[in-house]
Amino acid sequence: MTSKVLVVEDLRKYYPIRRSLSEVLTFKRGRYVRAVDGVSFYVNDGEVYCIVGESGCGKTTTGRLVTKLIEPTGGVIKYRPSSALARVDDEFVVGGYIDYRRLPKKYVKLLRREVQIIFQDPYGSLDPRQTVYSILEEPLIIHGIGNERKEREELIFKVLEDVRLSPPEEFINRYPHMLSGGQRQRVNIARALILGPKLVVADEPVSMLDVSVRAEILQLMIDLKISKGLTYIFITHDLAVANYICDRVAVMYLGKIVEEADVLKLVNEPLHPYTKALISAVPEPNPSNRFRIREVPIVGEVPSATAVPPGCRFNPRCPYVMDVCRREEPPIKDLGGSHLVACWLY
Amino acid sequence: MSLLDVKNLKIYYFTLKGVVRAVDDVSFNVREGEVLGIAGESGSGKSTLGYGLMRLVPPPGRIVGGNIVVSGKDITSMDEGTLRREVRWKVISMIFQGALNALNPVYTIGKQLVEPIIFHENVGLKEAYERAVEMVRLVGLNEDVLRRYPHELSGGMKQRVMIAMALILRPKLVIADEPTTALDVVIQAQIMNLFKKIKKEFNQSIIFITHDLSLIAEIADNVAVMYAGKIVEYGTSDNVFNTPKHPYTQGLLKSIPRLKSKEKLSWIPGTPPDLRNPPTGCRFNPRCPYVMDVCRREEPPIKDLGGSHLVACWLY
Predict the structure, then answer these.
(1) Are the beta carbons of B139 and B194 closer than 8 angstroms?
(2) Which CATH number belongs to the domain containing residue A166 in this structure?
């Protein structure tokens, strides 16, 4: 039986925009960037759940909320801890789940052991003045794992072997600038895995890598998922990558999930006009494409998240827009087979 | 007719830690109306090649050998003044990588578009402005962008402005260096459509440089695949994509995730070589699945397999 590791309900994150002096003096209301605006989803144990969207759709913010790197404006995030964390303090575990809001600060560290993140930029996310060894040792020290130096070294060697940076002796004393992009991303993955997490949020882990390295990192992530029993939330802008690694996909647009389905279904039978447009825009290495103009059925660009259009957020760009779209926000509808779509057409 | 002829071009960077042979003995040509795609990973020398064709290689880089001939004129050793007046932007122009930061933030788009017209041609401001309006419309923008500043435009709009700027003097050849890298997929598809339109309507020659083979398939007539400063395979798009010959090209094509298939991907093990000290023999030999003794000893010559399908590999 699959069970839900993470449940997210109506998650919201608004960033306030600084008001100008004249706005303050005229008592204008503060405005917000609605980065994530009412997102609900769940993640099953052992699956790869993908969040796909263009820049600014809120996918990275969602990933950071789920890892508790930032606090939500509203909504609920519930995580089902493994027995180790659950044992510590039963009173915070309700029905088997920890509610992020109720988790006292002193237990956040325990949560971090189980929920980790792999950052997008393998160049910017490693401290250039730390060696690979000290980058990997730091989380162990912070979490008080391995009291002896020897013990920590063993763990570091093991995780380096896991991400196939072998022999580890060759890498531990290197600085990030001495590594290639793919090797840096392996260190990044090793850092996320060294605490033995259950849920890993991977925020565009291959987008900055060369094509020939990309496939290798994706395969590594798939192998690690199986050997360590991980669950991934995989954030990407690339539907082809999502198709390769994911089980279920959610498409986000301007802070909301507009469609969610099994990846095969989503790619082959997309329902939401935005998903259809995204799929039609993906280039394929087929040289006969050079003779045809791609039909991308949507116009314009993503509006600013400070001025979200009323009704359906996608209505100004939608080729099928109706009156109701401009007035009311479409509810999320389950079309069966866990294919969810938020569109008035259905 | 051949518009651009590049012969044995060598561009080296003379760094303190040694000579980086970024482009090492590269030859190719581009016909009028042809779109040539140059594919390669980071560090393959593809961008340096693009800058070299504009004679804009940043120091400590220098063109150390070979010839670049544009419509019959050798520009390799042309003096900078003549080059600026007669060739750069007028005959060859470039859409720079990271175009989103390539516009000057303190001038309006209009001013930036009009500047090259006034510099190169003997026309008044009014006529130059009219031509700017025409070009801006052609790339799918409203003429009121001319009054706006770069920060007021979205990424896709800025990229269209950069394309308009590259086309404004109707150059014979446009070099597009990763023109869609920072853009979202939907915008990328729109920009690719724009390139297709320009190719068709102007019979424009374009050199399209990118790491993404899928984008090359979208536009290019011919493809050159670069690895470690060399062209390892060259041919028509159909030949290179459907019957790739070089193990590097084959490896690259097998590593691209596809939208409609879950076929298992493979990849090329190892990392590209340090160009200060490339491997002897074939530069791909440490990563090649078919490596033979000769590959480690001698550099493979370029071999014509017929139908102008060229490959530099000892297998053939």
Answers:
(1) yes
(2) 3.40.50.300
